[in-house]
Specification:
Blueprint: H1 8-32, H2 39-63, H3 70-98, H4 103-126
Length: 139
């Protein structure tokens, strides 16, 4: 049985699908681009951008079963993903280039940290259900 919509467990299940796509795109970029210096970070940024487009829809449907208007969810999730993309890319660069962590190991660490932050932003901002009913006037 699947966990309830909107729960962190449900998010993790959906995120695993998104993570696999993100990781495959990243590996392709790492394979095609040079492997030294900042190039794995460029691969991270490219993969984050492409993965964000997919993640909006999978989390909208599978994780949150959101009925919010896409005129709200698309721009809001993209703002969250842009902020997350900038922050995660900076962290990836610091972790791999400045601190010298293995770029594949830091991929896992960075993905986990930013995935958790994404969940909070999506649950509390982008896909948060709001009441659209008109107040009854009975006070």
């Amino acid at each position: 049985m699947l966990p309830d919509h909107g729960t962190f467990r449900r998010y993790i299940m959906t995120a695993m699908v998104n993570f696999l796509a993100f990781y495959l795109i990243w590996e392709i970029c790492v394979y095609l681009l040079p492997k030294d210096n900042y190039w794995p970070t460029i691969s991270w940024a490219i993969s984050w951008f492409i993965g964000s487009l997919q993640a909006h829809w999978t989390h909208r449907i599978w994780t949150f079963n959101s009925h919010r208007d896409i005129r709200w969810t698309i721009p809001t999730t993209m703002i969250l993903y842009i902020l997350g993309g900038l922050g995660s890319t900076a962290c990836y660069y610091i972790g791999t280039v400045i601190w010298g962590f293995d770029y594949r190991l830091f991929f896992i660490i960075n993905s986990s940290m930013w995935g958790f932050l994404n969940y909070i932003g999506q649950k509390e901002i982008a896909f948060k259900e709001i009441s659209t009913s008109v107040p009854s006037g009975n006070e």
